[in-house]
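sanity check this chain:
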Amino acid sequence: MAAAKSNTNWFVIGVSAAVVVVLAVLATVVVLLNNQATAPGVAPKSDIVNQETGAISFGSGEDEIDTYIDFMCPVCGQFEDAYGEQLQTAAANDEITLNIHPVSILNRASTTGEFSSLSGSSMYCVAQEAPDAALDYFNLLFANQPAENSAGLSIEQMTALAEQAGAGAAAECIADGTFMQFVDSQTKTHEIGGTPTVEVNGTRIENAEIGTEFAKILG
């Protein structure tokens, strides 16, 4: 008796196997991209950057005030106008520890789609490369704060401000956007949904309470 003819369709099997391989590769790529999107990025290294919290810290007072700011945020500019000098003076006198956290919630409010991350990164660049100039640079960023729905400050403008503050060494870091991913990850880690966000001795407070709480500490 003749052997039964095989009905195996090797072409279909080959195509199916190829599809499985392609799907597996795509799944791997998606996982890698998701991991890159949520990774903390390169962290700045500086004596004034807290490696656990990401804060750029000034002063050594027992009372701690944490501010989470976005350099595109107009209310943050108003906050700095109202309280910035008082907080920085208290930190300089070691009456408080002032912890500044650059965050990025308003990239959507810049036409480039990245100014909040880029300016926050530039702040970390200065903190790493020229820590003594960090507070001056911080103040210059707010003194030259761009309007919402604009492109924001350019890399050249931020570099010029850094040089004005005495942080010319940070130019390459600013241009590279070295800490943009770190700024974005800090925004998520600290669950920042609006700015300014303020914490007093580890407790997050409502904006309406800021004046009262600051008066208790600063007088």
Observations:
- The beta strands are 56-58, 63-69, 96-102, 197-200, 203-205.
- The longest helix spans residues 10-38.
- The radius of gyration is 24 Å.
